[in-house]
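Example (one chain per record):
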Amino acid sequence: MMISRLAVAALTASFVVGSAAAFAGNPSGGPAAASTIGTGAGSTSRTGSSGVVGSAGSAAAGDTSASSLGVGATSTVPTGSSSSIGVGGSAAAPNGRTMSNSHVNRGGNNLNGQSMNQAHDPGGVWSKSHTQTKVRGDELSSRTKSMAHQPGGPPVKSTSRTNMSFGE
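Predicted structure:
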């Protein structure tokens, strides 16, 4: 069985559109904006199962922006199983500090990926996006939280979660 490339392409396209919307709606010095999206697809048959989940998000405030993305997939057939995971992100602040950190860990049959991205400008303007994606046997999950802040108001937040299980 093969993971649907259409599902992965749809998630990626949604991430790009969401990022563009957050950036376009946030010219320099404009209001804070944050958006996230999550999706998944799966199939089972008498010969096996496969699934993919993912989530992504972006945030922007002032001249700062941050984004993150995670995708996890698994496929099981009578002769074995295969899993994969990918995470990434970015942060930008022309006049401030940025931090981007993405990594994948493997423990036994489990894969865990995390991407944390932040951008800070002087004066309390910041953007953050954090994605965690997990593949644990026949359970898949992905969660993204994005936040942006301008002084004088509360942070703007958006969170999405996607979970899938192929339990017997």
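Caption: Residues 5-165 form one domain.
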